[in-house]
Amino acid sequence: MKRVFLLVPFVLLLAHAYDVRQTATHKFAEIAPGVFFATGGDKVNVGSNGLVVVNENDVLVVDSHISPEAARALIASVKTLTPKPIRTVVNSHYHYDHSNGNQVFGKEVDIIGHEFTRKKLLGDVLHEATYLNNGSPATQQRGVAPLEVQIAKASGDDKTKLEAQLATLKRHIQELAEVKPTPPNVTVTNKLTLYRGSREIQILHLGRAHTAGDLVVYLPQEKVIFTGDLFFNGAPYLGDAYPTDFVQTLENLKKLPFTVAAGGHGPLIRDRAQIDFNQAYIRQYWAQVKSFHDAKLSAKEAKARLDLSKYSAFAKFQLTAPGVLDIEIGRIYRLLEGAE
Ligand SMILES: [Zn+2]
Question: 9, 13, 20, 214: most buried, per Cβ within 10 A?
Answer without folding.
Answer: 214
